[in-house]
Amino acid sequence: MLSFHRDFSRSGLSRTELLVLIAILLLLALVAWGPINAHLEEAKINRAVESARTINTLLSQYATDNNGVYPVGEGTPAEGKSEGIALNLLENNYTPDATIFAVGSTPPYRGKASDFSDITEENISWDFTAGATATMGITSAAPDLLPTVYTTGETVDYSSIQGRGLIILPSGKGPFGYEGIVVAYKGGVAMYIPAKPHAEKVPSAFIMSNLDFRGAYTQIKP
Predict the structure, then answer these.
(1) Please, are residues 139 and 63 in contact by the beta-carbon 8 Å criterion?
(2) What's the CA gap between 11 and 7, in Å, rounded?
(3) Domain assignments of the chain as residue spans, ordered by start
(4) Are residues 209 and 165 in contact, defined by beta-carbon separation less than 8 angstroms?
(5) Which pTM does this prediction carry?
(6) What is the pLDDT of residues 84-117, one digit of tens each?
(7) Quick one: which of 92, 91, 87, 42 has its CA closest to 64?
(8) Cα–Cα distance between 63 and 140 in angstroms, integer?
(9) Alpha carbon distance 72, 92 (integer Å)
């Protein structure tokens, strides 16, 4: 104990002064944490929006090469699942980067298989829009306002929202919890839609009331 006191004396600071200094530093750290945390969250959202935009472009490119039909995981062990769609894009060289399928709290793919066959639903942050069934892809004729890819966790009943849009009550199961969702539309627009009021609902901007339903649609999930 005496040695501890002597060490502080040599440094020119008493124990009280050191405790005050530590308290000041902790206070400054707490003050700075708010903006730092906000910046980190904004960076996560921006990355997710960019990933949604990229995936949306890849889906469109796949459709261009496959008679105008979007992928549904056909030919993979996960047909009708989000990871099957990811495999369609990865195995056919539309992207070499499997980490774009994980955003927010989702752990990114770290597998070793050359054909990405070890990617799992735990590495996927996204739901997709399919045709009348989960094994029927939408086509290039689908409306531009149709969401093609959006962060997972919610249940979407397309047939019940025609003409009135969609309000989602967040489940908290998606990569951004109760905060909101990231969505990309067939026309190429991608955005983050926050829940308003906080932790209560995502507004009907997700699926808009003026969406022209020209077909039956269903949800593909991991």
Answers:
(1) yes
(2) 6
(3) 2-220
(4) yes
(5) 0.79
(6) 999 999 999 999 999 999 999 899 999 999 999 9
(7) 92
(8) 7
(9) 13
